[in-house]
Specification:
This protein is of the alpha/beta class. It has 9 helices and 10 strands.
């Protein structure tokens, strides 16, 4: 994406590319079952029946199973009116990437997931953050709406008026503004994708946890190899993509590289703890990843985790 923007024909071409190169591979690998990634089923209990070998162990009712000495599973009414929201952080650091920019990867992810949802009749909406929340696409369905969503997310921010420019916020990303802006729009329980590199000023943890209390939230963390690596190139002018601050550093200095590595490790640990504390699942998506392979691996991993949890719950009930 970078500085180029998509018009509606470009958005159509992007969808066609993803449908041919990614969606078909996902359908083949996951056989159309995206429950590991999407909300999938509603909360309303429909019935109980005996367990069958293909059933999800997460749906076993252990109280009934213990009472009848036969495994029983809960059946739920499918939530056919699922609404998904994409909260997309396209702040300045999204323009950086080794093979592709974070912004391009974010747009591919949104277009693909929105296509998966809308082809099942679900509704999708989006909010975009650059220096502030500057674009909102209300939830809707259908291919025309999907094209509008992709097109809107890819457009440049309108130039602010002179008066507004003087009072415009400066500094780094304020991710909490994006999360706070979503709350009044999400009237019903929804699937929420927060797509960001999470290189932000503090203060986003609480609004993220607040979203997760009511909605199914997946944090899609965009990463790039350049985030952690400092090659030995001698004197280098390094800049902060968020604030614009620049400084000359000696990358040949081993002490500098060691300090940088420790700072990256501390930042990584703090971020993982913050996401876990907020109660959200995290999908790590690198600019070097193959999108279909990354999504397939993530869904399969979540299935294995769910099966282990179900097994542990069954062992506890049996004892």
């Amino acid at each position: 994406m970078n500085s180029a923007t998509l018009n509606l024909p470009d958005a159509e071409r992007l969808l066609l590319r993803l449908e041919w190169r990614v969606l078909r591979r996902l359908d083949g690998a996951l056989h159309g079952d995206y429950r590991g990634l999407l909300l999938g089923v509603g909360d309303d209990l429909a019935d109980l029946r005996e367990y069958q070998t293909h059933d999800d162990v997460r749906h076993i009712d252990w109280n009934v199973t213990a009472r009848l000495q036969t495994p029983y599973v809960r059946e739920y009414h499918e939530d056919r009116d699922l609404t998904a929201w994409f909260l997309v952080d396209l702040s300045p650091s999204s323009d950086i990437g080794a093979r592709a920019s974070r912004g391009a990867v974010a747009l591919d992810f949104v277009a693909l997931m929105a296509r998966l949802l809308t082809r099942r009749g679900n509704r999708v909406g989006a909010l975009r953050y650059r220096r502030h929340v500057d674009a909102v696409v209300p939830a809707g369905s259908g291919r025309r709406h999907l094209l509008r969503l992709v097109h809107t997310l890819s457009q440049p921010t309108a130039a602010p008026a002179k008066k507004a420019k003087a009072t415009a916020p400066v500094g780094g990303t304020r991710l909490h503004e994006l999360l706070d802006a979503a709350h009044p729009l999400l009237k019903r329980r929804a699937q929420v994708f927060v797509i960001s590199d999470f290189l932000s000023e503090p203060g986003w943890e609480r609004p993220l946890a607040r979203l997760a209390q009511r909605h199914e939230v997946l944090a899609v963390r965009l990463t790039d190899p350049l985030d952690d690596e400092v090659p030995d190139l001698g004197l280098v002018l390094m800049g902060d993509a968020e604030s614009g601050e620049q400084i000359v550093v000696d990358t040949h200095d081993r002490g500098f590289r060691v300090r940088h590595a420790k700072a990256v490790e501390r930042r990584e640990q703090a971020l993982q703890e913050a996401l876990a504390s907020a109660g959200v699942d995290t999908f790590e998506l690198s600019t070097e990843d193959d999108l279909a392979e990354a999504l397939t691996h993530f869904v399969q991993l979540r299935r294995r985790v769910a099966q282990r949890r179900g097994g542990a719950a069954g062992a506890g009930a049996a004892s």
